[in-house]
């Protein structure tokens, strides 16, 4: 096995996107990871069954990484970057998951709550997202539907739907109140998110205690899916400014992130002898930018070859 480069140890145990460059500065490969250090380290492990990677690894001269706040954010970063250009050793354009949105229609007579394509919603309808991974997003919708059964509420429902809503508490809770509760979670309001996750966790634990293990497993999937949906997201933000460049500097390295239409479209790094003020950063981005500038500067001192 090839010797693992020192740059690998400098990577954090955190989600993010990594990029391999060759000796000429060309991009070889872009990938994402739930844990950057472990994922990148695997390229210098046993690759007997990965012939194409065995050919690529000796060409890697530099490792770069962009640390994200969640695996979902890392997935979007990878997808956005690959859509703009496919490096020679990447095989899939735009990542593997399908982007979907969540539709919330609080019509008092027949409210709707479920998956929807990413298109302009009808008046009075809210569209959340986009999110990656239709299966995960459907599980998140299912979990929220357990807590706030808006999809089964309203007088226009069938008798069976009304009975299900009654069991879940939807008959006695106004549609507007259910819609507000769902929207607060999907808007990532901290208290609403914590309350929803705690409620699902309590139901999972009760199911496990009652030896309803399949139900407990399903609830665990819904908890994980909801955490995926409400995770921090900077690199794909619909309705954001049409064009924005965000920069950060650390110890001779400038990191520039270019956003177009609310999506990360370019991730650039270059040497820069003087500190430049951070520009274009929305509120709350300072820690994100600082840690990535510091990591870029550290990795720049640790070439692979």
UniProtKB/TrEMBL annotation:
It comes from the Bacteria. PANTHER family: UVRABC SYSTEM PROTEIN C, UVRC/OXIDOREDUCTASE. The lineage of its organism: Bacteria, Bacillati, Actinomycetota, Actinomycetes, Geodermatophilales. GO terms for biological process: nucleotide-excision repair. Residues 13-91 form the GIY-YIG domain. GO terms for cellular component: excinuclease repair complex. This is GIY-YIG domain-containing protein.
